[in-house]
Write a structure and sequence with these properties.
Elements: H1 5-15, H2 22-43, H3 51-56, H4 62-72, H5 76-108, H6 115-125, H7 144-161, H8 173-197
Length: 198
């Protein structure tokens, strides 16, 4: 049986204030597994947060930062790293956008204390991390929104210093930032709820 958002919303309405049947628990477990798989997808994103970001922002003066950015976009290997970073930010945002709706649904289900809540906590909050930076740093999920914000700020600065670097039109920076912020809130809300009941 395919688990859709509409079916899950129906399940939530149906189950408010009642214990879950075994079939409903299986549907919830499918939702948990789908969420976990999306979180695992985050771990294999390539090209996120290249070292050039730290290099550019190591300067104190804004004009030095802008000069470093202008110089960076001229070097072919750095251009390639910046474009990989842009693609990885988009990829992370796409994963988080889908994951957000599942985290909200899991929170709205108000799981009762017991095996299902402990399973949810174990599968979604233990041993998982976000993307790995180019330097090999595993980003904690509760730090991902801040890292995305910095990564997007870097892309905005690149676009400001070299207009058209990423192409024309709306590049979706604000939208990607909003998705990352929503993920942070949804992930924290579910974690806090599970902490209270387990």
């Amino acid at each position: 049986m395919k688990l859709t958002t509409k079916k899950l919303e129906s399940l939530i309405q149906e189950m408010m204030g009642r214990r879950f049947t075994q079939e409903q628990e299986q549907k919830i477990l499918s939702l948990i597994k789908k969420s976990r798989n999306l979180m695992l997808d985050l771990q294999v994103v390539q090209g996120f947060f290249p070292t050039i970001i730290n290099g550019v922002y190591s300067y104190d003066k804004e004009e030095d930062v802008q000069k470093a950015i202008r110089n960076s976009v001229r070097a072919a290997h750095i251009k390639k790293a910046i474009m990989k970073h842009y693609a990885s930010v988009q990829n992370v945002a796409n994963i988080l956008e889908e994951l957000n709706q599942y985290l909200v649904l899991l929170t709205d289900l108000e799981l009762e204390p017991g095996n299902l809540a402990r399973t949810t906590k174990g599968l979604l909050f233990m041993g998982l991390f976000g993307p790995t930076t180019v330097t090999g740093l595993n980003i904690k999920l509760n730090e991902l929104a801040d890292m995305m914000d910095t990564g997007i700020m870097f892309l905005e600065d690149i676009e400001s210093a070299a207009p058209g670097f990423f192409g024309e039109g709306n590049l979706g920076f604000d939208y990607m930032r909003d998705i990352a912020d929503s993920f942070h809130n949804n992930h924290s809300d579910l974690f806090d709820y599970l902490e209270r009941i387990t």
